[in-house]
Structure formats: C-alpha cells, structure tokens
Amino acid sequence: MADLREQRVCIKFCFELGKTAAETHQMLKQDFGENSLGQTQTYKWYKRFKNGRTLTDDDDRSERPSTGTTPENVAKVRDLILQDRRLTILDLCSTLGLSYGTCQRILSEELNMRRIAAKFVPRLLQNEQKQHRLEVCRELQQELQEDLNFLSKVVTGDESWVYGYDLESKQQSSQWKSPFSHRPKKAIQVCSSERRQFMS
C-alpha cells in the first residue's frame, strides 16, 4: 500500500487549500487508486486537521494498564496454588474476587504454569514398601545362589483382595505445574477404605 503518511500530507494540503472532505477523498482516489485511504479514514484525518492538528504521524499507542495483575495478586495466586495445585481458575476467581482473564494471565504469564493431567502408574508405593520389596528380592536371590534347589522348596499360595474404588476423572486429577516441578502421578486404581479378602 502507498505510504499512508504521504496520503495524510495530501489530506492536510487539501484542507489548507479549502477543499471539502468529499473533494479530498475523490482526489486521493484519483491519485492513489486502489491504495488510497477509505472514506472513513479520509474524513477522520480531515476532521483532525480541521480541529487544529498539525502532525501527520500516528499517535503513540499506550496500552491499557492492567489493574488486576499486581504483585500482591500474583503472590496471592501463588500461595493458593502451592496449597492446593488442583484449584481451578474459577476457584481462584471466587476466592480472590479477580476476573477469569486476570487469574489466567497470572498463572500463564506471571507464574509460567500450566495445568497437567496426572500420569497413570500401576501403583503408588511408599518408600518403606519399595525398600521392603528390594530386601525381599535380595534375600531370594541370596537363597537361590546358596541352594540351586531353592525354587523347588517354595510353597505358593494365593489370595485376592477386592477393593472398592473411588473413580476420578482425568480433569479432576489434573493440577498446576511449573516448568521445574515434576509431573504428578496417579495410580491406575486408587483403593478406598473398603476391602475384602478371599483365600484359596
């Protein structure tokens, strides 16, 4: 497109010659053709020069200051998320009285967080359970090294536990994660407090 500033200079020149806005627009169309300013823009700049404007450059654009994204609000959102990473944006809005867009902007831009669903794993073991399994495996390995017929002496049994499961959706298990924190884990089946044992 032709230089817009050049067309504004032409509009200013036409105004000073006493041309009307309509005449100015027609002259721009004749000179610049398809690249000329539209009627609305031509009339707007003509009115500016008529009101005393002398510059033909664009006005400096000042972005609207954000009143919600303050250091205090950022700290409040951070504290709430660290207390409970499963809070939703709507929860934050109702607790802090901030708009949805403000909370979303604080989480994504200020805290650099995003909501991630928990990774499914077969079981979630405590450190004591992991250590116990390791010790049992080492003992069995030691027994096998000392007695090659060890496996023939093993008597196996079976038991089945039937649990009641508290189902949780993927959305319910998701939580906020920073770039440096680990992805949360979730057992494929999370047992409730109810269970029954069957022996065989």
UniProtKB/TrEMBL annotation:
This is Mos1 transposase HTH domain-containing protein. GO terms for molecular function: nucleic acid binding. Residues 8-52 form the Mos1 transposase HTH domain. It comes from Cryptotermes secundus. It holds the Pfam family HTH_48.
